[in-house]
TrEMBL record:
<feature type="transmembrane region" description="Helical">
    <location>
        <begin position="90"/>
        <end position="111"/>
    </location>
</feature>
<dbReference type="InterPro" id="IPR037294">
    <property type="entry name" value="ABC_BtuC-like"/>
</dbReference>
<dbReference type="Pfam" id="PF01032">
    <property type="entry name" value="FecCD"/>
</dbReference>
<dbReference type="GO" id="GO:0022857">
    <property type="term" value="F:transmembrane transporter activity"/>
</dbReference>
<feature type="transmembrane region" description="Helical">
    <location>
        <begin position="61"/>
        <end position="78"/>
    </location>
</feature>
<dbReference type="GO" id="GO:0033214">
    <property type="term" value="P:siderophore-iron import into cell"/>
</dbReference>
<keyword id="KW-0812">Transmembrane</keyword>
<dbReference type="InterPro" id="IPR000522">
    <property type="entry name" value="ABC_transptr_permease_BtuC"/>
</dbReference>
<feature type="transmembrane region" description="Helical">
    <location>
        <begin position="117"/>
        <end position="135"/>
    </location>
</feature>
<keyword id="KW-1003">Cell membrane</keyword>
<feature type="transmembrane region" description="Helical">
    <location>
        <begin position="142"/>
        <end position="163"/>
    </location>
</feature>
<feature type="transmembrane region" description="Helical">
    <location>
        <begin position="304"/>
        <end position="321"/>
    </location>
</feature>
<feature type="transmembrane region" description="Helical">
    <location>
        <begin position="272"/>
        <end position="292"/>
    </location>
</feature>
<feature type="transmembrane region" description="Helical">
    <location>
        <begin position="189"/>
        <end position="208"/>
    </location>
</feature>
<comment type="similarity">
    <text>Belongs to the binding-protein-dependent transport system permease family. FecCD subfamily.</text>
</comment>
<keyword id="KW-1133">Transmembrane helix</keyword>
<protein>
    <submittedName>
        <fullName>ABC transporter permease</fullName>
    </submittedName>
</protein>
């Protein structure tokens, strides 16, 4: 019964994502109908329509789909690993650290490594430090989260320091990384994330049984033959990698890693590990937020990171103020 409901939920989310992506491809100064969008995608539209859809807007929508899926999938993995709904990459500082290292690459601070590589280094370093500071509790409990918050604050301050020490043109080029934006994203970074997220999702789906058992009891997980250390290491590595590459494309887009898994659990009506549903929910949220940001104050564009923060922050406050509940 649960599998059947999850299947229908994922189908509905996929259809919703297709509809919303079509509307996003048709929105802008050159407005196109859904039929014109699909004609342009298949090379049957006018030259102007094909230019607008395939060259100008498609890359942006793909970036939204992939980064949203990566953030939400990473959040679902981290929440399950820490058995805490607040343990998402944005809240425990991974996003900020990845951003700081990516900005360092953009402003040319003693490195020639591309932003995606630097973002991955920053994400891995933040996770290692949070894990180290958490001590023997590992990723369990609030100590891991508090350590991550501190690391994120330091990384955020470092980002501002870097931007304050460079010329205004260089700072403007790096600024979108600090708020989260899908505007003019690098095609190489987008396709790189695509190549990462597909195998990551496959590996993550292979970990579902172990992650489900991990939510119940560590003792039960070990007694059923699950290699606990390997499970935690692979899960943590996937979360860090997905976050690093997503930040390298869109910057630190907050709340998607929190809201994506929450929406998937709500739709599935259970507190399991809905990895595929979380990825679809995150993609849907990111495309929707970017579309709203382009439409709300047009022709002024509101970065997608601001939209998700405004929408997601009230939910985060509600989550913090509500009575304590067990894991995700």
């Amino acid at each position: 019964m649960i599998f059947k409901r999850s299947l229908w939920v994922n189908v509905a989310l996929t259809l919703g994502l297709l509809v919303l992506s079509t509307l996003a491809l048709g929105a802008g100064q050159v407005k196109l109908t859904p039929l014109e969008v699909w004609q342009a995608l298949w090379g049957m539209g006018t030259p102007v329509q094909e230019l607008v859809v395939r060259e100008l807007r498609l890359q942006r929508v793909l970036a939204g789909i992939l980064t949203g899926a990566a953030f939400a999938l990473s959040g679902c993995l981290m929440q399950t690993l820490a058995n805490n709904r607040l343990a998402t990459p944005g809240i425990i500082g991974i996003d900020n650290a990845a951003t700081a290292f990516a900005v360092a690459s953009v402003v040319g601070l003693t490195t020639s490594i591309a932003p995606p590589g630097m973002a991955l280094v920053g994400a891995a370093l933040a996770t290692f430090l949070a894990f180290l500071l958490a001590g023997q509790t590992g990723t369990q409990g609030y100590r891991f989260i508090v350590a991550g918050i501190g690391i994120g604050a330091i990384a955020g301050a470092l980002t501002q320091l870097l931007l304050s020490q460079v010329e205004i043109d260089t700072a403007n080029a790096a600024f979108p990384w600090t708020v989260g934006s899908l505007n003019a994203r690098s095609p190489g970074a987008v396709w790189g994330l695509g190549l990462v997220i597909v195998p990551s999702l496959i590996v993550a789906l292979g970990l579902v049984r172990g992650l489900q058992l991990l939510r119940i009891s560590t003792t039960i997980t070990v007694s059923l033959g699950i290699a606990l250390k390997r499970l935690r290491l692979v899960t943590l590595a996937l979360s860090v990698m997905l976050t690093g590459f997503a930040v390298a494309v869109a910057g630190p887009v907050g709340m998607v890693a929190l809201l994506g898994p929450e929406l998937a659990r709500l739709l599935n009506r259970h507190h399991g590990v809905p990895l595929f549903g979380a990825a679809l929910s995150g993609a849907l949220m990111m495309v929707a937020a970017d579309w709203v940001g382009r439409w709300m104050l047009a022709p002024i564009e509101v970065p997608v990171g601001i939209i998700t923060a405004v929408v997601g922050s009230p939910y985060l406050l509600w989550l913090l103020l509500r009575p304590a509940t067990s894991g995700p």
